[in-house]
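G., the chain you wanted modeled:
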Amino acid sequence: MRFDKVFPVRVQSILFGELECVARNVSAGGIFVEMPEPLPLGAHVRVSFLNTDSSAEIVALGEVKNHYFMNYAKEGLTRSVSGMAVRFYAFENESQRILDECLDRFRVLN
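Predicted structure as tokens:
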């Protein structure tokens, strides 16, 4: 299950440095990160963000699996969003437990 929620994230890569981005949704297995120029497919990244009550940082290691370029209309104007899908393959410290608890709270609220 994937939950739509817009929140800031920090994406770090050995090859591409550190980027402040916006996440559009998250699941236990991955995240969609909006960014003007997505990192290359297969790039390994460290993604960190705060849980919903902003008390604990979630840090996940992942791989860029897909690129997305979306065009849409809003208020009569054509707009676009680009980004990348990152599949998580590991978590630091207690991050997986914290993310699972956050997702459980979202599930109850929806």
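The chain has one helix and six strands.

Shout if anything looks off.
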